[in-house]
Write a structure and sequence with these properties.
alpha/beta, Amino acid/polyamine transporter I, seven-stranded mixed sheet, two-stranded antiparallel sheet, 11 strands, about 60% helix, elongated
């Protein structure tokens, strides 16, 4: 007869998912400044923002714009001064000095920021939900950014052919489409094989654009006076009607700033900061000022000041280098989309997607097929619909400004709630930062009819998908809980009247959502088949609000109130950047705690599959119910997701109406 035992082993309920020692060790590693980390950051982090000089000033002075900026000395000085100070305030202050200090156990990015907001929301669940929803919308906008960045970046580079050989203008779109197709076709092979080349290529890129910028400045050295904020403020105050509309294009100079924060865990704050301050920022500033000097000297050069700044003999090599740099920029944002989708699935805002790990040594290098093909179709559609980087520029700016504003707002909240800064100081610092961000948002709203609607539409669609899935999961969980019934009562019944069942001398692992309810497959096995296994493991997988969980905190065992009855509940814990491996976690269990060594080589794994159907009176609106059911078909195979052996996995189903 099994003995009653009310303790949980180990008593570890208050663990945050990573030990303090593991967390400190991880931070010390990522905060170590090594040349390899700095060069790696140059290849991955700065591809997007580092290629912005190709198209920013050209878009500002685009004569086809409904609100063109006249090319005269006052405007040129004002524009380049605004570019410089926008980069300094948004990238250096908001992201480098502030955002990268808001890390979640060493990891950054919008999903990490959402986790921090949830954890530190002192105003209750309602405030936490509002702030989290705002963050989810920011993550949704990132998907729009992931579609637009490859299109505008590669287009802008290939358009350099028009400068080298004007008759090649008709070949720009087909060449761009071919490069994009090849880029996405090779995604499944991962970035590890070519990642070593990214850093040196970007080092060459930044040195080249900086050198060309110096050449341009030498033609008109007085342009350096625009480093003074007086020119930016004077342009805004004295020519507000022109400057306001110019902001919609000036914001292109800060596209890619979110990558600095998103890749924090890969390279560390210090490596990213040093790469930005000592190479990327100076090179970009020199390029912008060199182009501005060229525009002042020859006003006919506004059509493509970046490539016209390059000496004639070097233009074709620069087109090739620019194409390589923009492909790298596209690669970075594509892999970022994979990460955001994976992390969103981990915390319940997307269904489980099929994920392939492309590197044995780097868990963060993943490939998500469904996201890959969706992005490819979307990018090609944008290329053939807009056909030029200038036409895409205003769509690009809208996504960037909204994401930056959301990040700034959430950082302000964390500064008060987590960092304990006085409210007056938070207001004093964040008010001007938000004012700058909102000014850019307002300027981009004037470009709605010229493409700014696109990222908003994509963001709203992605936001609706994520929130619908999250809400639908809550509805299904409630109905499923009633079908399953309390787990401890079920175990009590087995303990009191287990002799009526036929016991199979095998090990069975039942995957379940938690330890409060009975796995449907286990209930069906007992009630309909009248059998039970000698060893029953009820396994639940929990995704903790941390990137990774240390080995000592990965597994918790609960005997559900009894010893020696052959039934244990095991909680397998993982971070939101990890892919759960249930068999591997169970293999590390102590036989004394599982009442004997688990025969995992011959164990059967049971899954409870839910078939969704629309109810006559659905809880959500009918269209959202249909959307939720449709999204469910995107779910990855559960056995593959949890790394279960296919030949020993049994699936039992149940129908639930939502």
């Amino acid at each position: 007869m099994p003995q009653r035992h009310d303790s949980t082993v180990p008593a570890d309920e208050e663990s945050a998912g990573q030990s303090v020692a593991a967390t400190e060790n991880r931070k010390s590693v990522t905060d170590t400044v090594r040349p390899s980390l700095v060069i790696g950051a140059l290849g991955v982090v700065f591809g997007d923002i580092g290629t912005s000089p190709i198209y920013t000033l050209r878009t500002v002075f685009d004569p086809s714009d409904p609100h063109p900026v006249p090319v005269d000395p006052g405007n040129v000085y004002g524009v380049v001064s605004l570019v410089f100070w926008s980069v300094l305030i948004i990238v250096t202050v908001t992201y480098v000095l502030l955002a990268m200090r808001a890390d979640n156990d060493g990891e950054g990015g919008i999903m990490a920021l959402i986790t921090l907001v949830r954890r530190w929301a002192a105003g209750g669940r309602r405030l936490a939900a509002i702030l989290a929803a705002l963050g989810i919308f920011g993550a949704a906008l990132f998907f729009g950014d992931s579609m637009i960045t490859p299109a505008i970046s590669v287009l802008s580079a290939v358009e350099g052919l028009e400068v080298v050989e004007p008759p090649l203008a008709k070949a720009v779109v087909p060449i761009t489409a071919l490069i994009i197709v090849l880029l996405f076709l090779f995604q499944h092979r991962g970035t590890a094989s070519v990642g070593r080349l990214f850093g040196p290529v970007m080092v060459a890129w930044f040195l080249a654009i900086g050198a060309c910028g110096i050449g341009g400045i030498r033609q008109h050295p007085a342009i350096l006076k625009a480093l003074s904020p007086g020119y930016a403020l004077g342009f805004l105050a004295g020519h507000f009607a022109i400057a306001f509309f110019a902001l919609a294009a000036i914001v292109l100079a800060v596209t890619g700033a979110e990558a600095l924060y998103a890749d924090l865990g890969h390279f560390g704050r210090r490596s990213i900061t040093r790469a930005w301050l000592f190479l990327v920022l100076p090179a970009c500033v020199l390029s912008y000022f060199g182009q501005a000097a060229l525009v002042l000297g020859t006003r006919g050069h506004v059509a493509s000041p970046f490539f016209l700044m390059v000496p004639g003999w070097g233009r074709l090599p620069m087109v090739a280098l620019a194409t390589a740099a923009t492909v790298i920029a596209s690669q970075a944002v594509i892999t970022g989309a994979y990460s955001v989708a994976s992390q969103a699935a981990q915390i319940g805002y997307l269904p489980r997607l099929r994920i392939a790990h492309t590197s044995e040594s780097t868990p963060g290098q993943i490939y998500v097929p469904w996201v890959n093909w969706l992005l490819l179709a979307s990018v090609l559609t944008l290329i053939f619909a807009f056909r030029s980087s200038t036409a895409l520029a205003f769509a690009f700016g809208m996504a960037v400004t909204c994401t930056i504003t959301i990040t700034t707002l959430l950082l302000g909240y964390l500064a008060h709630a987590k960092w304990r800064l006085p409210l007056w100081l938070v207001v004093a610092v964040w008010t001007p930062l938000l004012a700058v961000d909102l000014l850019f948002v307002a300027a981009n709203l004037t470009k709605l009819v010229r493409g700014a609607w696109l990222p908003l539409l994509i963001g709203l669609a992605a936001f609706m998908v994520m929130t619908t899935w999250q809400r639908g999961r809550e509805v299904v969980a409630g109905k499923r809980e009633r079908l399953e019934g309390p787990l401890r009562e079920f175990v009590d019944e087995l303990w009191r009247d287990g002799s009526r069942l036929v016991t199979i001398d095998r090990t069975a692992v039942f995957l379940n959502r938690g330890k409060e309810t009975v796995p449907l497959a286990l209930r069906a096995n007992v009630e309909h088949n009248g059998v039970r296994h000698r060893q029953i493991v009820i396994a639940s997988v929990e995704t903790e609000p941390v990137p990774r969980v240390s080995a000592e905190d990965r597994v918790r065992i609960d005997h559900l109130g009894y010893r020696d009855d052959g039934i244990v509940h095991v909680t397998v814990r993982g971070g939101y950047m990890e892919t759960p491996d249930v068999p591997a976690a169970l293999a590390g269990l102590d036989p004394e705690e599982t009442e004997g060594e688990l025969d995992l080589d011959h164990a059967s794994y049971f899954l409870s599959e839910i078939e969704l159907r629309a109810a006559a009176e659905p809880v959500m609106s009918r269209w959202r119910t249909r959307l939720f059911i449709a999204i469910g078909y995107l779910s990855a195979d559960v056995a593959d997701y949890f790394r279960l052996p296919r030949q020993r996995t049994v699936i039992l189903g149940e129908r639930i109406e939502v």
